[in-house]
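In response to a reviewer's request, we include the raw inputs and outputs for one of the modeled complexes. The three entities were modeled together in a single run.
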Amino acid sequence: MSLELEGVVIRAARSDRPLFAPLTLTVAPGEVATVMGPSGIGKSTLVDFIGGHLSAGFAPQGRVRLDGREVTGLPAEARRIGILFQDALLFPHLSVGDNLAFGLARRIRQAGPRRMAVEAALAEAGLEGFGDRDPATLSGGQLGRVALMRTLLAEPRALLLDEPFSKLDPDRRRQMRDFVFDHVRGRNIPVLMVSHDAEDAAAAGGQILRLSELAN
Amino acid sequence: MRLPLLAALAASIALPTFAADWSETVAAAKGQTVYWNAWGGDERTNDFIAWASGRLEAEYGVTIQQVKLSDTAEAVTRVVAEKAAGKDDGGSVDMIWINGANFLSMKEQGLLHGPFLGDLPNSKYLDLSDGSAALVDFTIPTEGYESPWRLAKFVLTYDSARVDQPPMSMASLLDWSKAHPGRFTHPAVSNFMGATFLKQALIELAPDPATLQSEATEASFSAATEPLWAWYDALRPTLWREGKTFPENESVLQQMLNDGEVDFAMAFDPAAAAAAVKRGLLPDTVRSYAPAAGSIGNISFVAIPYNAAHKEGAMVVANFLLDPATQAMAQNIEVLGSYSVLDPAKLDDAAKAAFAALPASPALPANEALGATLNEPHPSWMTRIAEEWARRYTE
Amino acid sequence: MTHREGRALRLIVLFTVLAGFVLPIVAGLWETARAAFGILPAIGAGEWSLAPWRQLFGLPGFGTSVALTLWVGFGSTIISLLLASGLCALIHGRKWARARAGRVLAPFLAAPHAALAIGLAFLLSPSGWIARLLSPWATGWNLPPDIATVNDPMGFSLIIGLLIKEVPFLFLMMMTALTQIPAENHLRAGRALGYARGLVWIKIILPQIYPLIRLPVFVVLSFALSVVDMAIILGPSNPPTLAVAMTRWFYSADIGLLLPASAAALLQSVIVLLAIGVWLLAEGIATRIGRLWVRRGGRGMVSGPFLAVAGAVTGALMLAGALALASLLVWSFAWRWSFPGFLPESWSMQAWLRPGAGWGAAFAESFGIGLCATLISILIAIAWLEGEDRAGMRRVGWAEGLIYLPLLVPQVAFLYGLSVAMLGVGLGNGRATVIWGHVLFVFPYVMVALSDPWRALDRRMVGQAATLGAGPWRRLWAVKLPILLAPILVAAAIGFAVSVAQYLPTLFLGAGRIATLTTEAVTLSSGSDRRVVGVYAVLQAALPFASYLAAWWVPRMIYRDRAGLNGGRG
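The model returned the following structure tokens for the whole complex.
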């Protein structure tokens, strides 16, 4: 399984000027590749494009392929590409456990096994017994771990990380980074991280690409 | 869509043959809901209509749905709108409590069903002789297009705790109002009651009241109303709020009497004040009387629009309203306090006894205080007076 | 991602709105216009003519009616805008004051015009509650004085009534607008440059939020120029404002008056259009003068007293509104209550104990119609907003205008024509028609109330659901609607309140057969029994209050363990 970008160019719908130079990239399974670039260049827009969340205000070109199959035209829910942001974005009306159950793939059908999968994920995040908790009562680090677990339970075929650690202080940042990278490497899926932080990129250990503005 | 239309068509063809047979009408009426459009500003009347609905349902399977109007003309407008839209049957108005001007206007426009009065068995209790008050609505012959249901007569009401000697004529009313500025007023003249007050004054003040019985002309109008306007010009500055604004109708005026804002109210119903005392709406010191020269009286009618969806039901209701038991109930001061429209000479002994047993009240005027009943002027007078008044006194 | 499904949904909603709302309004205006120029076959009028207009201009008091209409319309709009701005400036940035002002003002938004007017009429009249409070010990009045307080020829009491309704509306609209600009920072920056708080507000913040509340201001202007129920109860009567005069002509015994009445209805829309034009013109001039004023850099003007007056006047108005509603409650339990007693001499439950006399049925009717109209409106609004989401598009200007259309066109101008048109195409005047007529006016308010919270929902949250494999319908049912439950219920409560308050649509489209609390209260207010009117008005006010309470309470109950949806940390 690999994630391939080919000749990706994004413009704002009313502008001729692309946000960045054409981007071509292949991320191997188990690799955590990093795309770096200054703020405002369109890193998050790139994430939206790959994930299928780009709003109508943008005119993209280029292709996204997952494991050789093109997904560019598919709606987000059919791509099976997970995204993690710096905010955990847990659904506020659901308990922690129900958030995980929402993510859990439909492959597991019966109530018993589903509950066990959720409990296992909680244990993996070091949050045994947190299933009935209100997400609003969790700390930042706990929220981040639940968010990752929720994403992984959906069994994504690729994962995008959009500045996932930028809100954390240095100590927490290291812990969270290790937690995320350990877990995603184990799944053997391609991971693409966008970040402006060189330390994150180095820790990722994969290829590093710099988005650059288009020369005039 | 077609079926009801055909049925209605068949019914309208069949009607002349069967209408004479009352039992057919009663059978057709069973299960109908009659939308009775009636002025809804009087809670007693609304209660009475609700009571009638209960009785009718028990006896005939007919229910009344009262459509409460703030002005009778609303119902006329509605029938006009339906005619505009070509809705010539299944109309939304089944029966209207109607009075002279609206009746004339609907009759002239061909918006009424009938004649039907002769088909009602209880019409035998009415005085059906020529020129009888039961057959004339504001000098307009009803020709069977209306059925009477209650008697109205103009009276003034005052609080005896505040007024010792009420003025007995329009001339003395002017003197009283000059002596007590801001303590008298009448409902807006666009309202039936306000116009009736001016008509009452007109009858008293006109040089020749006989001219009022025929349609007003330019000449007869200016001759007959000249003293009226002179009197009103003198009265108006002494009225409540200097005659610049007026209560909407007699109910509002009655409330103003209760609040003490004015010292007089007026009604087209001699029992109105007594009933209001019973209901806690006026102090028990109020008294009603008619001016010494007598007062305008008429009968209230119900009519059925030409496109009514439930004509049979409406006829059953109209007939029920003429029942002596219903009329005695209506005259009961504790119920409606509305005088009977029936001819006492035609009642049997049981009915007479029922009327004699009705309770009395100090606010109820004695027969001698009611005086003579004066005939309504031709409706053209009311229209003209209202227009002329608006022209003269609207700023 | 494809936007095809979004387009289809949008088209369906657009078609519903066009066919269900815009077409009928146009048809109604068309029938009214035909009658205004002499075509009303029902009364045998079939030829184009200007006679209705000549007749209209010749009617006694016509000029005064128009002048009164303009005076009341512009007067109440300008004053309510000033008061709302003053109040906003006064409490802006003071969190507790803001929350409290919202809590105090919201009930007046919910109170129906008719109930408020009936209460005010009693409160302010010479024999009313205020006079009774002060008599005879302070005033010496043993009988009420002959002073024109209610139904005064200048329409002051009507303006007061309108202010009680419109100040809270504009204030809450401004508060919403304020969240869309960095007002706090501007206020800080302005004060750092040496401008007093009120002055920063007038010079910097008001010009920024004004464009955001322009449509609501026009709604207020149009409403004040064409209000009927409140004007019947509080306004001058001889002559009344144009809208009331017209309603009287429509219902006059003289059928011939239908034609000039239609002309007046058309004139009413022209007046509203012209008034909006004049307002825009004045806006331009005010902006220019304002710029000159801003450039001069004056810091000397003391704004404090103005703000204090605005606060005091608003406070007095709301106190009057509260007393008006309280007086209705007292009346409904009274038996005898005569001047100058401050409270009734004798009490009775009788008015309440007889639901069969009418209020039971009217209550059920109001409740049922309100519920249906609100449900339909909420459904269309959610479909509209979801369509925008799926198409990935923001709302365009004309669509916003479309939503506001029913609020900008005066009701009197098209309702009579509409009921004629409805009958013409074979649709009767019944409950379903009334519900639809209510939706016409409920939907815009629901839309306005729901749009901002809907857009404020974090798009990435919805995106997360998509990455987890949830399709558009599951995202709507399982994520958006539950998270937006509170704002949806608030929008529904507002819609319900709007429905309960509708007078003219119920009257015209229900052929008078549909008796709601509002139509009954207005009709009975021209009767003699304040106790019965009190029952109707209390119930009429209670229904919207109860719905607001439910909108506040239900999400708190459902989400009592969810701090993120409960005003806690998110």
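As requested, we also summarize the result in words. The two ends of chain C are 29 Å apart (CA to CA). Chain C has a mean pLDDT of 87.
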